[in-house]
Specification:
Strand content: 15-25%
Shape: elongated
Strand order of the largest sheet: 6-7-10-5-11-4-3-8-9
Order of helices and strands: HHHHEEHEEEHHEEEEEE
Distance between the termini: 60 Å
Radius of gyration: 23 Å
Number of strands: 11
Number of helices: 7
Structural class: alpha+beta
Helix content: 40-55%
């Protein structure tokens, strides 16, 4: 039987790159903006599990359970929990991306001049040169990322909602998107944070928020509470001015509404190239109250 020599440095370096790219691809498909700490920790955790290839064989069933457990832990590390439905969705996306990558790599292996592969405890090692593995990984990632971006720009209809904000006598309606990556809460009030595009909601903004966005100061008016929210995501990053509207409603298809108490952070940047006007917080989840969304 031909023995396969496993080079530890190649094993870890390739897995580090692979896991970093696959987690990014999964985030693209899940429409999440990962925090750097989560991305790095999940990548390192997933890479460390490649060492299981050196452990005694656990058998097919044991390997399957180990692989599922690892995928669940990495999913939690990268995306957080956010409720069972969101977790299972992110878990499924991460597994799907991994299966796609494995399929592409097996295809490359089948057509390679050195068809030697070693597998143990759900970890695979293909006996190819480091450069070939590197190029194969990059090509596989680009194919997966292309597919993810195609799917990403065809979002499910139930991810969009019609939202109405009321401030005093002024009202405005926005097209909002449920961002699974936004679980931000205000540090002082504990309220979920949503992000709105400045031009869309300008007419209802408290004077302090509008002054801050136009001139960089809040003026002397104290008519409304003024907040600064530390945010990093699709709507920008840094300190965003924010306020608590008098009324925030997610509208259903039949005209009914569900009210939420939220903080609305304002971004001058278009949200995903202007596809929508607002990013909702994943903890709101209008489906939990059985409200239909605007298609």
């Amino acid at each position: 039987t031909m023995k396969t020599t496993i080079y530890l440095d190649v094993l870890l370096l390739v897995n580090l790159l692979v896991n970093f790219l696959l987690i990014n691809a999964a985030a693209t498909l899940a429409k999440c903006t990962l925090k750097t700490v989560r991305l790095v920790s999940a990548t390192l955790l997933a890479t460390a599990t490649a060492l299981f290839i050196f452990l005694p064989p656990l058998g097919a069933f044991g390997s399957l359970l180990l692989k599922l457990a690892i995928a669940g832990i990495v999913t939690f590390s990268a995306f957080g929990y956010g409720g069972i439905r969101i977790f299972l969705k992110n878990f499924g996306i991460f597994m799907g991306v991994n299966f796609a990558f494995a399929g592409i790599m097996i295809g490359i292996w089948m057509f390679s001049s050195s068809p030697r592969i070693y597998s143990n405890n759900g970890v695979f090692y293909i006996d190819l040169s480091f450069l070939t593995l590197l190029l194969s990984t990059v090509v596989s990632y680009l194919l997966i990322e292309l597919g993810c971006r195609i799917v990403k720009h065809k979002p499910a209809k139930n991810e969009y909602y019609s939202v109405r904000l009321t401030q005093g006598a002024q009202k405005v309606e926005c097209l909002a998107f449920m961002d699974n990556g936004n679980s931000l809460k205000d540090l002082f009030t504990g309220l979920p944070v949503v992000v709105a595009w400045y031009p869309k909601v300008r007419k209802i903004l408290p004077s302090q928020v509008d002054d801050y966005l136009r001139r960089g100061d809040v003026g002397k008016s104290a008519e409304h509470d003024f907040h600064l929210v530390l945010y990093q995501g699709v709507g920008g990053s840094g300190l965003l001015p924010a306020f608590v509207p008098d009324c925030f409603e997610i509208l259903s298809k039949d005209g009914e509404s569900t009210q939420y108490r939220v903080i609305v952070a304002i971004s001058k940047k278009k949200l995903r190239q202007g596809e929508f006007d607002m990013l909702l917080n994943r903890e709101m989840q209008p489906s939990k109250v059985k409200k239909e969304c605007i298609l």
